[in-house]
């Protein structure tokens, strides 16, 4: 969506008598460019306010962010008294001017009854002559007396057009002002822009600058460095972990049924499917006991489809600060949408949406669950959800209803051929040859073992061999296998219950 379309949306809100608009963001440069474009087209003046500066007239005309590493110019304050929030509101009300007033971080000052009352009076006046107050900030929680008049404007993360402009401008600045060598072909520059999706304009500027100044050059080899920096930024500023498709080197032993389903579902992202107005695949739910490969499956899907993987640990959604959990979850979903096509892996789904939380959390889990269901049903971006769960009894029944996910898979313990494949994978990973071992005996000894337990046995066997100063052999591995009590034994009842629930309900991955 181009910025001009967003400007038209702001215009529609103002012209349809919405006196109070909230934009929850820290990207003030984008807010300024958006409001300048919208007000210029409407022929309305734009004023800006912050507590240190007071109220000032915003520069006329649409001024796109030029990204020239210089701070914005100081605006001329209209009246020093307007640095005080109460005086500001009185000043605005007395102006009798049809205009748009952008108030930065004013929400923090709406904690006194007299300020709230004055704010409401300004809003009431504005509702009659199509002026508007624009509130911006990182966390816009308004008093209930004011919230009734509020409408939120969703300033999504920069789209490809915006990222392309900021990339082109930044590269020009780096080349002209800092003599950075730009050695990118046309196709490589398009790839560079794609790597920046999911970032703010400032973050995009920073990672480009970091890559360029590191060696005085920006070329195709820097794209991987930018992806690594992007992963760090996303992890530090959101609930998500980011894995580029190129970084996923996992091998999945077995899972024939899942692989066949994925091979067929992939056509849902094709142009041919779009020409038939077919919706893209929504997602799958994978349930099974711990260590049976659910997490590996999520990574393997991203690798197989060559899409970036975004991991959301459901238990991390909850935050000790009231309102932050819902905000964090909304931001995670918006970030996933901005990076489409992408895989969103929701790990341990039951920890985020368990129905057994009841009212002990003030209804938060129910609200989050409702938001997730709505998003899952209505999302238009190509975000394929891979949800994994260990405890099916903790999953809300609404999620198990046909149509929520494209398919629900049950992962049981690996069969003999799959155990052989898993053993081969981990032996090869640790530079061992299965040819020197009695693989049939090892496969027989690991009946009832999960993939993770087989991996642990191989690693333990290698440590034992190093201690004994001898090559890994079958006897050492069998010793470690016999010393392991698998979950199929220690949690026999849980596995039996899971199998009985999954029987005739879910599709096996085998």
Automatic annotation (TrEMBL):
<dbReference type="InterPro" id="IPR052381">
    <property type="entry name" value="AAA_domain_protein"/>
</dbReference>
<protein>
    <recommendedName>
        <fullName>Uncharacterized AAA domain-containing protein ycf46</fullName>
    </recommendedName>
</protein>
<dbReference type="Pfam" id="PF00004">
    <property type="entry name" value="AAA"/>
</dbReference>
<dbReference type="GO" id="GO:0005524">
    <property type="term" value="F:ATP binding"/>
</dbReference>
<keyword id="KW-0067">ATP-binding</keyword>
<dbReference type="InterPro" id="IPR027417">
    <property type="entry name" value="P-loop_NTPase"/>
</dbReference>
<dbReference type="InterPro" id="IPR003593">
    <property type="entry name" value="AAA+_ATPase"/>
</dbReference>
<feature type="domain" description="AAA+ ATPase">
    <location>
        <begin position="280"/>
        <end position="415"/>
    </location>
</feature>
<dbReference type="GO" id="GO:0016887">
    <property type="term" value="F:ATP hydrolysis activity"/>
</dbReference>
<comment type="similarity">
    <text>Belongs to the AAA ATPase family. Highly divergent.</text>
</comment>
<keyword id="KW-0547">Nucleotide-binding</keyword>
<dbReference type="InterPro" id="IPR003959">
    <property type="entry name" value="ATPase_AAA_core"/>
</dbReference>
């Amino acid at each position: 969506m181009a910025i001009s379309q967003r400007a038209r949306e702001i215009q529609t809100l103002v012209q349809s008598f919405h006196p109070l608009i909230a934009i929850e963001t820290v990207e003030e440069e984008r807010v300024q460019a958006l409001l300048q474009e919208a007000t210029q087209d409407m022929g309305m003046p734009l004023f800006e306010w912050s507590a240190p500066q007071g109220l000032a007239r915003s520069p006329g005309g649409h001024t796109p962010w030029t990204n020239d590493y210089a701070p914005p110019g100081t605006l001329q304050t209209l009246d020093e008294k307007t640095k005080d929030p109460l005086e500001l509101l009185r000043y605005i009300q007395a102006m009798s001017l049809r205009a748009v007033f952008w108030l930065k971080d004013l929400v923090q000052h709406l904690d006194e009854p007299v300020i709230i009352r004055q704010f409401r009076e300004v809003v009431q006046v504005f509702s009659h002559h199509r002026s508007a107050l624009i509130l911006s900030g990182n966390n816009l929680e308004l008093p209930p007396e004011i919230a009734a008049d509020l409408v939120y404007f969703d300033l999504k993360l920069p789209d490809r057009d915006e990222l392309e402009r900021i990339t082109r401008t930044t590269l020009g600045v780096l080349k002209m002002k800092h003599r950075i060598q730009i050695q990118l072909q046309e196709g490589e520059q398009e790839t560079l822009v794609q790597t920046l999706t999911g970032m703010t304009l400032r973050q995009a500027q920073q990672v480009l600058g970091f890559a360029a100044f590191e060696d005085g050059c920006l070329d195709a080899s820097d794209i991987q460095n930018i992806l690594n920096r992007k992963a760090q930024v996303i992890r530090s500023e959101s609930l998500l972990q980011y894995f580029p498709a190129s970084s996923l080197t996992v091998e999945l032993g077995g899972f024939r049924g899942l692989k066949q389903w994925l091979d067929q579902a992939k056509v849902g992202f094709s142009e041919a499917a779009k020409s038939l107005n077919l919706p893209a695949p929504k997602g799958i739910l994978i349930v099974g006991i711990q260590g049976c490969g659910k997490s590996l499956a999520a990574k393997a899907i991203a690798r197989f489809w060559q899409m970036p993987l975004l991991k959301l640990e459901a238990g991390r959604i909850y935050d000790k600060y009231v309102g932050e959990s819902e905000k964090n979850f909304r931001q995670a979903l918006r970030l996933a949408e901005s990076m489409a096509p992408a895989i969103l892996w929701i790990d341990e789904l039951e920890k985020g949406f368990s129905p057994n939380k009841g009212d002990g959390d003030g209804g938060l889990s129910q609200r989050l669950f409702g938001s997730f269901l709505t998003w899952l049903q209505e999302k238009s971006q190509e975000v394929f959800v891979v949800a994994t769960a260990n405890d099916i009894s903790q999953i809300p029944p609404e999620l198990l209803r046909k149509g929520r996910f494209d398919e629900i898979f049950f992962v049981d313990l690996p069969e003999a051929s799959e155990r052989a494949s898993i053993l081969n994978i981990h032996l090869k990973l640790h530079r061992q040859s299965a040819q020197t071992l009695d693989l049939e005996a090892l496969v027989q000894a690991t009946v009832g073992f999960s993939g993770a337990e087989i991996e642990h046995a191989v690693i333990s066997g290698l440590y034992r061999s190093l201690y004994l100063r001898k090559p890994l052999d079958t006897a050492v591995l069998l010793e470690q296998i016999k010393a392991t009590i698998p979950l199929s034994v220690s949690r026999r009842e849980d596995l039996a219950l899971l199998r009985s629930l999954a029987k005739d309900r879910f599709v096996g991955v085998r």
